[in-house]
Amino acid sequence: INKPNAAVISADEMNVVYRAVPNPITVSIPGISDDKVTANPSGGDWKKKSGTTYELFPGSGKEVIITARGELPDGSIVTSSQPFRIEPIPAPLAAIGGETMKQSAITMSRQDLERLKVSVERPAFFKFPLNMKVKEFGLFVPGQPTLTVKGDSFDESARSLLRRAPRGSTISIRNIKAEIIGN
């Protein structure tokens, strides 16, 4: 085995991959050239991007194990496995007009609300680049039935419902349904 030139460092409690997104995975075995290393997951789909870089799409279980296999210069085989917990992507945060709703209530005029778009943002700790789009949301005005609005903007039905709200009413945007674009 060649003299190692790099350490293997991992965050032991952070071995997590997420459902519904391509998880970037790099596989190498110190001292073995990359062309002599192969890797396979148990419990997910796998796509080789280039060299030692893969994308993992976890399956339906709670864990995926990635096994690396490398051939030493003398022809002997080295294998190593690493388990990863499978977690759902964290729930997105509701936003209106590009501002994440960090508090339970935001005060604004009806006219301002009508012009804004409802969106969702990934939580700050979740570093995967996700492009999300709101498909629909529920608009609740006190004393009125909840209106399901298609898309991310207030349509004429939503604006009409807002006009029926007494001044100072608490308007709720609920049941936001969004999708990850391209996934």
List the helices and strands and how they pair.
Layout: E1 16-18, E2 23-26, E3 37-42, E4 44-50, E5 53-58, E6 63-71, E7 77-87, E8 93-96, E9 99-100, H1 110-115, E10 118-121, E11 132-140, E12 147-150, H2 156-163, E13 172-180
Parallel strand pairs: 1-7
Antiparallel strand pairs: 2-5, 3-6, 4-5, 6-7, 8-9, 8-10, 11-12, 11-13
The share of residues in helices is under 10%
Helix-strand pattern: EEEEEEEEEHEEEHE
**CA-based shape:** rod-shaped
Structural class: mainly beta
Describe the structure.
- Helices cover 8% and strands 43% of the residues.
- The protein is mostly beta strands and 183 residues long.
- It is rod-shaped and about 80 Å long.
- The chain contains two helices and 13 strands; from the N terminus they run E-E-E-E-E-E-E-E-E-H-E-E-E-H-E.
